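Researcher: Here's the sequence for the chain we discussed earlier.
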Amino acid sequence: MSRKKAFALRIDEEMMKAVEKWAADEFRSTNGQLEWIIYESLKKSGRLPRSPKT
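Model: Thanks. This is the structure I predict for it:
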C-alpha cells in the first residue's frame, strides 16, 4: 500500500469550486480528483516516478 503525505493547499475559491464539481461529476472525492489531476499531468509530462518492482 502506498504511503500518503498530507499537506495544506491554498487555492483560488472559484478554481476549488470547479474541481469540486468535476469530482462530483466523476464520482470522486475532491482529494481523489486532485490526485488524479496531478497523476495525469505527471504522466503526460513524462515526470511520473517509476514504481519499484516487487
